[in-house]
Design goal:
The protein is of the alpha+beta class. Helix content is 30%, strand content 20%. It contains 7 helices and 12 strands. The protein is globular. It starts with 12 loop residues before the first helix and ends in an 18-residue tail after the last helix.
């Protein structure tokens, strides 16, 4: 690519809503392949995808004594399937129905001698159409798919910076295809009340296992429903008294009664003089609100600075 792309691109949901919906369902199909072949990890950490320098990846997925990996490449706009014995298959990312994409991916795996059977209905969406029957969703705008990935690249980078000084239990930064968001989660170390469930097309036991312990979680979501714009979010489970009215930064962040989360519109980050600092202020201030109001043992869960000698430490962000 000859020209340097915009690092924090504009991503108005109304311009790519159809592509967003279709891509959400495509990522569910690929994510469910990882889910079907991977041992269960706490909090469903065995199911997400991960941000790469070109898109999203399953990371290596075991299949007997072989291993496969599936990558969305939003630069070349292809789906890449690779195996540990050197086989490579490609499928184009282009306008096609969910049913066509579903059939093509599973057929390629069958042809590689790596058949996978997945649960055939989307999770965490209303009015879920079985993948094999979905001829309604078929949009793919390559420009906006790539913009979405570029936002994930930036968010992933800043989320990792935010995660670094927390020495308690914390998740990787990972992309949950069910809710279609990038997230990172910190844990207090204490168990939590049983989650009430209620997530569309998601077994209640899955939600209860995911929220078995107290969390402060943040992430990026392209938007939808009552908030039809891309946004960063932060929430606590359980939510301590006073959390919705806690002071948070930067100006423009607010508590959403619809989501029960603090929200920072993506455009406030994108247009700020220092997007990294603006986003970090939101992540840190909402975490502090959750941890302090929830009486977390912050002295035991956090450290100050990078413990490495200066000569080994990386340059500051952006350096």
């Amino acid at each position: 690519m000859a020209d340097m792309p915009e690092q924090w691109p504009d991503l108005p949901l109304e311009e790519w809503q159809d592509t967003c919906t279709t891509l959400h369902l495509w990522t569910q199909i690929v994510g469910k392949i990882r889910l079907a072949r991977t041992p269960w990890l706490n909090h469903s950490w065995h199911v997400p995808l991960y941000v790469t320098t070109r898109g999203l990846t399953t990371s290596p997925v075991p299949h007997g004594d072989r291993t496969l990996q599936i990558d969305f490449d939003f630069i070349a706009h292809r789906l890449l399937i690779e195996t540990s014995d050197g086989a490579v298959r490609e499928l184009p990312l282009e306008p096609q129905t969910v049913a066509e994409f579903h059939a093509a991916v599973l057929a390629e795996l069958e042809g590689l001698g790596l058949p996978v059977s997945i649960h055939g209905r989307p999770n965490e969406v209303e009015n879920a159409i079985p993948f094999a029957d979905d001829r309604e969703h078929a949009a793919y705008d390559a420009e906006y798919a790539q913009r979405f990935w570029r936002v994930l690249v930036q968010a992933d980078r800043v989320f990792k910076e935010f995660r670094a000084p927390f020495i308690g239990k914390a998740s990787p930064t990972h992309f949950f295809w069910g809710s279609f968001d990038l997230a990172v989660t910190r844990f207090s170390g204490r168990t939590a009340p049983s989650h009430p469930g209620g997530v569309p097309n998601l077994p209640e036991w899955v939600a209860r296992e995911a929220y078995s312990h107290e969390v402060s979680s943040c992430g990026f979501w392209p938007g939808g429903g009552p908030h039809p714009f891309p946004l960063f979010y932060s929430y606590a489970y359980p939510e301590a008294a006073g959390f919705p009215s806690a002071p948070v930064r930067p100006e423009g962040a607010f508590y959403s009664g619809d989501l029960h989360e603090f929200v920072l519109p993506y455009d406030l980050v994108r247009k700020s003089a220092s997007p990294d600092e603006t986003l970090l202020a939101f992540l840190q201030s909402t975490y502090v609100a959750a941890a302090d109001l929830g009486a977390w043992d912050r002295a035991a869960l956090e450290r100050s600075g990078d413990p490495r000698p200066a000569v080994f430490a990386p340059k500051a962000m952006g350096g």
